[in-house]
Fold this protein.
Amino acid sequence: MKKRVLSMLCAVMMLCCMAGTAMAAEIPEAVPEEAAPLTELLEQTAPEATPTIYPAEVHASEENGIQRLEKVYYLTAKDDPASIPTEDFEREGCVYTLLDILKNDQTETHTIDHIEVITQESKTKDMAEIIKVLEPELEISTEDGYTGVLALDYTTIAVEAAGYKTSSRTVSATRTYPNLSDADVSLIPKSVEESGRTLTLANVDWQEAAADHADGYTLALRYNAVATYTGTATSKYATGYTVTAEYKGEITKTSCDTIIYTAVFSSMDAVEVAEEDTGNTAEVNWPLILIPLGVVGLGAAGYFGRKGYIHYQNKKRGYE
């Protein structure tokens, strides 16, 4: 009975060994996901095109057997330094790698104080309304190359009439002259003064002040006169207004707009680079190594366990 059990254990262990070997042999390689369409990949991964720039100067040097190249670029403040090539490159059997990029700013500017006087038309002289239409800042560019932003000096705002027109109207005044001896215009003044203007007699309204009755007739004895005087009044009014104001601040001019970038590259032998790349890409598939070793170990343990058990049984029978 014990022999049968031992035989069954050995058979199970052998089956495990065979199954482990089969599993190790049948481990599938990673299957890549379904590739996206080429045009879609290009749209997702293609970087934005940057303009190609070329160095103005290239300086080569050697120190302790190491070659160095310095590529010098002259850019303006508006240029993007990211367009400077920084990738590794091969030259005369050496591969050059970027060490550093040096920046030397050569820009020079000159700053001066400036006052800009502006003039504009307005329909009103109301200062509150005028301030609403004036810009708080003024961006200017002078003929000699200075640029800047100036601020409005509110204390300098001035308003004056742009022109005048004259208008005229008729004015009148009345005077009453009582108790006149006769209804005679010669008794009435021919002109009067009214509000600084001279008005002339235009009309007289006669009224009887007292009368005498005799033989059935009414005889006027006194008269009241109401005289109307007229004249022309003129006035002058502004046709519009002119607003002046000063904007003050600093303006600058760039006399030099150059920034020097120096890309420093160091060399490495091309053969060494290839060997390093090969060494770095070697990978060990540990599952394919460890699984067979584990299966072999299990098989060896089963085999030697059975041998030990048989030896123990034979020894026990010998003692018996």
